[in-house]
């Protein structure tokens, strides 16, 4: 059976703006005593997003200071083993990535909320993809992003069992 090109790869984004794609094959077997590494992180960094890219996916990320970047998911390096990855977005001092998401369709949206309660939507309809590693687009002039708004997944309704 033929599988889609990216089916066994995951894409990860960290709080300090790093990203990588890596194979999920080493993670099929039960873990070793010390666990299986997917990505190496710098001191104090953490993974904020992991997704399964499809063909022609884009990855979007937003920082606390309100910068957004969308690039082609294929620009994120595919690493053979657990590595640090490549810079997804260039961050100013003290700024951090608050969230990321894969965008497949033009209306797929990464929604974040400012501390004032205003929701901001980042999608391919609103922002053009740019090259990985840049500063991205400014979403606003003042304030900061406080959280990512996660939409509830569609829960199928199953027929009642008798």
Structural features:
162 residues, mainly beta, five-stranded mixed sheet, four-stranded antiparallel sheet, 0% helix, globular, disordered N terminus
Output the helix-strand order: EEEEEEEEEEEE
Helicity range: under 10%
Rounded mean pLDDT is: 89
- The coarse overall form would be globular
Helix/sheet category:
mainly beta
> How many alpha or pi helices?
0
- Tell me the strand percentage band: 35-45%
Distance between the termini: 37 Å
Report the count of strand segments: 12
User: Which parts are unreliable, with pLDDT below 50 for 5 consecutive residues or more?
Assistant: 1-6
Q: What is the CA-based Rg, rounded?
A: 17 Å
> How would a textbook summarize the main sheet?
5 strands, mixed
């Amino acid at each position: 059976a033929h599988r889609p090109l990216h089916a066994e790869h995951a894409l990860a984004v960290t709080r300090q703006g790093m990203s990588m794609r890596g194979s999920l094959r080493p993670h099929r077997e039960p873990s070793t005593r010390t666990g299986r590494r997917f990505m190496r992180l710098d001191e104090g960094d953490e993974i904020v997003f992991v997704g399964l890219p499809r063909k022609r996916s884009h990855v979007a990320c937003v920082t606390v200071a309100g910068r957004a970047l969308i690039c082609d998911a294929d620009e994120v390096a595919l690493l053979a083993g657990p590595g640090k990855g490549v810079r997804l977005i260039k961050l100013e001092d003290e700024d951090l990535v608050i969230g990321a998401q894969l965008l497949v369709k033009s209306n797929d949206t990464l929604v974040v909320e400012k501390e004032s309660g205003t929701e901001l939507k980042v999608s391919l309809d609103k922002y053009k993809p740019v090259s990985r590693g840049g500063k991205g687009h400014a979403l606003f002039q003042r304030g900061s992003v406080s959280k990512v708004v996660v939409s509830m997944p569609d829960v199928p309704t199953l027929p009642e069992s008798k």
